[in-house]
Amino acid sequence: MCNIDFASKQLNMIKNRIHRAALEANREPTKIELVGASKQQSVETMRAFHQAGLSHFGENYLQESLNKQKQLQSENINWHFIGSIQSNKCKTIAQSFNWVHSIDRLKIAQRLAKFTMQNDQAPLNLLIQLNVDHELSKSGVGLTEAPALCAQIEELDGVIARGFMLIPAPSKSLAEQRRPFEKARKLLEVTNQRYGLHLDTLSMGMSNDLEAAILEGATMVRVGTSLFGPRL
Ligand SMILES: *Cc1c(COP(=O)(O)O)cnc(C)c1O
How far apart are CA 126 and CA 108, in angstroms? Predict the structure, then answer.
């Protein structure tokens, strides 16, 4: 049940949230990319949002995403892989996406680089997923290991280390929400200084915490339910 009016209205609402948060942070709203987290949303929904002006989509499940990509082939979409990565899927992921947000070990980055080179494709943009609250989640790289991993990825041809992605545990107050995002922002600065890198991307902020993320420097927000509505 999704038409372009609904999509336009939703897209405007989220863009307004981004705009307001950016202004509060004294930042340029156009420097914040909206990625629609479209897992378990229908192709029809995605098509309507694309027609309404959304051009970046993030997908978690490879098979689901490939089916959608086939049906949306004629659209000019930037595809982001934001789910967990199995090593035997790297070839397909390298072929099918422009960005991968969920790098958690060097081996995955090496394999993606290898297949990107083999296919003679444009370099793949990589984000290292940070584990900002160890006790709660197993996915992602610890803050102490992340800088060196970025430096190792920088050495690879076929991929470009662009920055960090994180999914903090939910918290209620804005001040609490900001804390892990602040850590990520500072770590990006430290990493650039220590290794002379030019990491420029912080993928952080979802439906419930995008304002906090933008206040701490998010350059990409990944929004699902607040944008598209409930998942199927
Ligand atoms: C589902 C998902 C999102 C979007 O979550 P919402 O709370 O629906 O906005 C963002 N990032 C990742 C990695 C996701 O899996």
Answer: 10
